[in-house]
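Holo prediction — S-adenosyl-L-homocysteine.
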Amino acid sequence: MVSFVGAGPGDVDLITIKGRKKIEAAEVVIYAGSLVAKEHMNFCKAGAEIYNSATMTLEEVIFVMKKANEENKNVVRLHTGDPSIYGAIKEQMDKLTELKIEFEVIPGVSSFTASAAAIKREFTLPGISQTVIITRMEGRTPVPAKESLELLAAHKASMSIFLSAQSIEAVVEKLKEGYEREDVPIAVVYKATWEDEKIVVGTLLDIVSKVKEAEIKNFAQILVGDFIDTNYERSKLYDPTFAHGFREASK
Ligand code: SAH
């Protein structure tokens, strides 16, 4: 059995209990060493085989999984955040299906929600935005043209931009074009939940210089939208005059 496990954003206590138990029971662990905290390995049993996938190809990863499966060993494939977001797990799952190797996926706390927590904000404020767009700038991996940042920003929704802090100037230009304003609030969160976490908050006008000053180049979330700094309507859910399935409206 291969378990794809979301390790969470960094802080080792932000993995799920189910994910932690899988690590404790694994004979083989393959972790994404560039972004997954090494402390997770402290929970492995003595003698567990540990592989860092940062230096491995897809074929090498699958080879390790196949061999372990033949030996009836439990395998944990540990991905950063939640594996369904920029995790490159589909190609691994497809190979395992081809090889008739059983697998499961255990979700994790993604860095985009961890970053919202770090800045203590809610993405979905009534009257401001009820939508979160998760995206990235094109880099060496292209992004479909219909998903270009300026087109997405034109929705004026809350946004979480992965994998793009190194291109902050270009990101900001596209956001200005899409939001059609320069005073849109923006936060850049470097290594959310790690000990060396850094938070930079500003607007599209000043964020580039602030990010440069903080020397943030990668490993960061870019959160954008009025949810970061605004007045908003209070939610209907906790409004005394609004009834719902669990509560009657007060008179
Ligand atoms: N599956 C992961 C994302 C992997 S892609 C998730 O759900 O979070 C790697 C990118 O995620 C990084 O370039 C960065 O943009 C973001 N990221 C991952 N961990 C982060 C963290 N702790 N703080 C800020 N951004 C992070």
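READOUT: The chain has two domains: 2-106, 111-228.
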